[in-house]
Amino acid sequence: MNENSIERLSKYKSSLQKLKTLGFLKVFSDNLADALGIQSAQVRKDFSLFGISGKKRGGYNVEDLLTSINTILGKDRIENVIIVGCGNIGIALMNYRGFVREKIKIIAGFDIDPSRMAKVEKIPIYTMEKLKDFIHAESVKIAIIAVPDIAAQRVADLLISYGIKGILNFAPIKLKSQGEVVINNVDLIQEIEKVIYYANAMDDDNGKES
Amino acid sequence: MNENSIERLSKYKSSLQKLKTLGFLKVFSDNLADALGIQSAQVRKDFSLFGISGKKRGGYNVEDLLTSINTILGKDRIENVIIVGCGNIGIALMNYRGFVREKIKIIAGFDIDPSRMAKVEKIPIYTMEKLKDFIHAESVKIAIIAVPDIAAQRVADLLISYGIKGILNFAPIKLKSQGEVVINNVDLIQEIEKVIYYANAMDDDNGKES
DNA sequence: TAGATTGTTAATCGATTAACAATC
DNA sequence: TAGATTGTTAATCGATTAACAATC
Any idea which architecture B79-190 has in CATH? Predict the structure, then answer.
């Protein structure tokens, strides 16, 4: 139930979806381990942690396993999500095809400047004034923040006060959560800095070798 | 030198930049620990790991610390980066202001469909045919992949064969790296699934309590 | 000097992995 | 049955934290 095991669950799901498409009926912990580049014991440990069991000698039924994982990840139904901040990143996420495939539905965008409306197909964009009523009317639980960093904490506080339970934050600032809410900060700068660091470190190593 | 310590280095940097703006001259491990929500021992351990030292009783000099961290993260100069795939996410990244501030310069985009050119200011977009020559001519070491998942592995293999050393991948597929290259996979689906899982888990807990 | 903070060592904690009995 | 795979326990590994001597 730690963060890593949740992430792996998400990866198992994606592997299993491909196996299902290919017509596979069963799968062994060893296969999934290979797909993720981990040990088979890890796979079995993860499953046992979430109460998923297979058949000794017979492995796991692909269909059943997928159903179990989807239930755990809350993917047995469509999740309605809103996006606050309709700049480049917000708009890109609205148009992102991958979400639809995973039963994640962006049902509205919010922005201080409603003139951006033209850019997106089929997803309405409202002014910030509508935020509160919309969240209540649609019982929205999950929101994506894609506003500039200076506005991010204020938007987060608003969302939390309106009853949002989970936030995915793209603003380059670590949001502090007060109360019963999950905040996942995606820091693009940090991600590319990691790449740059390791790429440089690798080059340095090569320099030493030669 | 593990992945977590690199990530923290990136966060220290961002805290230090703010402190510098505010005119702070020195900082204690305790201050940085508070800012990141970790223990001060962790901060000192990280610094000692990277050979950064402070003054007993006097803490760390903000300016010097920032310089040291920037050098380690390779941020003492502008890093030229290219983006392959100029769909919504690619374009959003090209327009992302945060990169400029961090000395990350997107110098070109590449796409099979060059008609997208109109959308971005000042960053040229070329056809895939120009990729090889451009990488060689400009000695590009870092690339961002923002193509659809089916094309991602092929693009990655191309980039690697052209000498790219670090890849930040936004396609929802775990790329396999052969050889001397760093690949950092940013999986947006996975990030939002984590939020949904924890938000649901939190709601379930509340249900039990009441 | 007395007090505060670093730098490092040792202890703790938690996650991964190895190993193997159970069993299909 | 013999062989293969799960599920779980115990061992290992690595990262975080506590503690404290050194010292400014």
Answer: 3-Layer(aba) Sandwich (3.40)
Looking at the domain A3-72, which fold is it?
Arc Repressor Mutant, subunit A (1.10.10)
Q: State which residue of chain A sits closest to B186, comparing Cα positions.
A: A191
Residues with CB under 7 A from strand C: A 2, 4-5, 38-39, 41-42, 44-45, 55-58; B 28-30, 40-41, 44-45, 47-48, 52-60
Nucleotide C15 C1' to residue B76 CA (A): 36
Distance from CA of A59 to the nearest CA of B (A): 24
pTM: 0.92
B188 interfacial to chain A (CB closer than 8 Å):
yes
Span B107-127, pLDDT tens digits:
999 999 977 665 677 899 999
pLDDT, mean of residues A167-178: 88
Contact A183, A167 (CB under 8 A): yes
Residue B89: pLDDT over 80: yes
Tell me what pLDDT residue A145 has: 98
pLDDT confidence bin for A174, thresholds 50/70/90 = confident
Q: Where are the domains of chain A?
A: 3-72, 79-190
Spell out the alpha helix ranges (H) of chain A.
3-21, 29-36, 40-49, 62-72, 88-94, 97-101, 131-138, 149-161, 188-209
